[in-house]
Amino acid sequence: ALVAPAAEDNAPPEEATIVEVIATCQEFDSRIPWRKKKPQIRQGLGVIVAGNQVLTAEDIVRNGTLVEVRRAKSGAKLESKIMEADNQVGAALLTLSDQDAAAQFKRAPIADKVQRNDVVTVVKMDESGQFLKDDQGAILLPRLDSPSLRAFALDVGGRYRQARLDDNDLR
Q1: For residue 123, what pLDDT band results from cuts at 50, 70 and 90?
Q2: In the chain, N or C: fewer CB atoms in 10 Å?
Q3: What is the pairing mode between strands 91-96 and 53-57?
Q4: Cβ atoms within 10 A of the Cβ of 138, count?
Q5: Alpha-carbon distance 160 to 44, whole Å?
Q6: CA–CA separation, 166 vs 70, rounded Å?
Q7: Cα–Cα distance between 97 and 95 in angstroms, integer?
């Protein structure tokens, strides 16, 4: 879980920690495994965490040959290295190469653990890294439409259960 940092500039605290991740990747050719396919560019978002580290989605940087980050929608690109990437978890941890330049970013501290009754906020961003907002400028939060999902599951002969921390939803 991310804990919102205090804002130091005009950007909302959540937006100040968001960076754009740009990765040049080369997949291996499955027919000729010792050869790689043509390079391709992948883009996504990440969040600055402790020190000069960026947490992002693993599929953005998979087989990355060059990975760069910049503040969403602005700023110079900074080279980074992939520290860890786990395709089962779907997360990757990057390290910014230039620690002095990394100082321009705000950090989003990560909680040690999430416990029952803790509040975790999920937000959605558009392709440019901006939070989706309503007409009044408030950040939109996704909502689970349980009644519609339950009705759909029944229509197709399935069951709908709300996910739980214990295993009772699987019974």
Answers
A1: low
A2: C
A3: antiparallel
A4: 9
A5: 32
A6: 39
A7: 6
| Whole-angstrom distance, CA of residue 6 vs CA of residue 131 | 18
Which amino acid is present at 85?
A
Q: Residues 61, 25: contact at Cβ < 8 Å?
A: yes
The pLDDT tens digits for 18-48 are 888 999 999 888 888 888 889 999 988 888 8
Q: Would you state the pLDDT for residue 77?
A: 84
DSSP structure class, residue 131: B
